[in-house]
Amino acid sequence: MSVKIGEKAPNLKISQWIQGLPTNFDKEKDHIVLVEVFQVNCPGCFLYGIPEAINIYNKYHSEGVTVLGVATAFEDFDKNTKENLELLLKTGEVIGDTKEGLSQYGKLNDSKLPYKIPFPVGMDSLVKETDDISELRIKNFINKQIPDFDSQSEDYRNQITHRVKEYLKSKEYSAETFEEYSLNGTPSTIVVDRKGILRDVSFGQNGALEPLIQSLLNE
After folding, report:
1. CA distances from residue 200 to 50, 104, 181, 193 in whole angstroms, order as listed
2. Are the C-beta atoms of 56 and 209 separated by less than 8 Å?
3. How far is CA 12 from CA 5, 76, 81, 117, in A?
4. Tens-digit pLDDT string for the chain (219 aa)
């Protein structure tokens, strides 16, 4: 990733704070900061990621833990929009795959979330993609995901290069926070300590988040 564990965490790239007062890492000095990165069109985010972040908020926000939400978009750009985020935060209404997935698990009340997100939520900064898919850009993208790419077989390298080129062609936008922290998908979490140092970046839910928060509180 372009940012490194153990170094100063760059500020989140937010186009607009939709809920709560505008803030960022440099404004949360002396606080541990947990950032829950999600997509509006992401069932797993609402089944696991966001409830876990709400649990952390409820337990530890009075002890100096700030929880922030960042809605991003690396796919389904017609659904992962600021407008659908605003709808979600104002009414609890969900859309697309989130609505279908949560309905199957009986997790909705009249197509709406049974809970409210209690912490500030911003929209990731989305930059319109250009048609310039250079070899350097493809190489940089691959090297972030597959560090030993150059040591792989020629056939494998050709297949991956073709897939990445097609993927980049299909992208309408680049989400700046998602890209800068080299996130692998959603839900993801970013954890920064009281000194503004990046301590963890994780994809999915692995049961390690709350112990990490507890450990940082004891430092």
Report:
1. 17, 32, 11, 9
2. yes
3. 15, 22, 18, 19
4. 568 999 999 999 999 999 999 999 999 989 999 999 999 999 999 999 999 999 999 999 999 999 999 999 998 999 999 999 999 999 999 999 999 999 999 999 988 999 999 999 999 999 887 667 778 778 877 877 787 888 889 898 889 888 888 777 776 778 999 989 989 899 999 999 999 999 999 998 778 999 999 999 999
CATH 3.40.30.10 in the chain, residue ranges = 14-125+178-217
Name the CATH superfamily housing domain 14-125+178-217: Glutaredoxin (3.40.30.10)
Question: 142: which residues sit within 8 A by CB, 6+ positions away?
Answer: 149, 160, 161, 164
- Torsion angle, CA of 219/205/11/123, rounded to 10 degrees? -140
Q: For residue 126, report the phi and psi dihedrals to the nearest 5 degrees.
A: -105, 125
Integer Cα distance of 201 and 190 in angstroms? 5
Instruction: Provide the token pair at 32.
Output: 């541990």
- Bridge partner residues of 37 (DSSP): 70, 188
What is the rounded distance in angstroms from the CA atom of residue 139 to the CA atom of residue 191?
28
Predicted TM-score (pTM) of the model is: 0.84
A 10 A CB-CB count for 154 gives 7
3-state secondary structure 153-212: CHHHHHHHHHHHHHHHHHCCEEEHHHHHCCCCCCCEEEEECCCCEEEEEEECCCCCHHHH
